[in-house]
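U., I forgot to send this yesterday:
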Amino acid sequence: MNPGAGLIEAHLILPPEAVPTFELMLSDIVVALTTMTPDDGATWTLEALLGPDGDREALADAFVQAAEIAGIELPAIEWRVLPDVDWVSETQKILAPLAIGRFWIHGPEAEEPPPVAMIPLEIEAGLAFGTGRHATTAGCVEAIERLAGARRFRRVIDVGCGSGILAMVAAKLMHPPVLWASDVDPVAVATARDNAVANGLWNAARYAVADGVAERGIRAAGPFDLIAANILAVPLTKMARSIEAALAPQGVVVLSGLLVGQERMVLAAYRARGLHLADRIRKNGWATLVLSR
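Result:
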């Protein structure tokens, strides 16, 4: 299939406070996501590019959910059919390598070598996945780096793995004997596995299509010393019971995908399960929480 055939772009205007929520909700659905603002910053323009195999109805639903989470009325969406161009390849070419903590994250087209002492990670910019550029990913990577420098983790799971960045970071830094990566989306799981192979980590983890930590094989592999979940505030809150049940007595949880204003809600759910805040990282209005017993 021609990667440029049938590409659709959605265009809408947002208030600035809603932009982070829309970015997170859409980043794993579209090929490319662009946000721009005029000098006054009063409104932002968001452009989302849907791939040839993308689901326009799913994208429309994501817009509705993002508006509900952001607490705004969904603005009018302008849908545009784009010319027949290989937009995926074009997007990959313009994505410059990105430094997150000790990691140098780049696409397969990158020619620039990693800086000395940085760990390269190749992430394929597939049709349904981002490339680790969101603030929540950076927060999780920094949290995992801090934890890796403090103690040893033997059983680790990346819940809602997406492209598999967090699982690969854990594999590189912690070398855990047991490492799982799970996601509700089979395409995400396949992409995470492919990215692991591209980085020489084909035997580092097991992959599962699963909703949270409830899948039988995952439960049998636990309890986990480290559970990382970069999802959204509401599902993280709903998963508090199952995550706590899968956590080892001295285990640690890294949670992200939540706005700073949603910290109190998420913390309340986990404190009710006997966990407390051990560390916090805030970036661009987004929070990463590190919890322990």
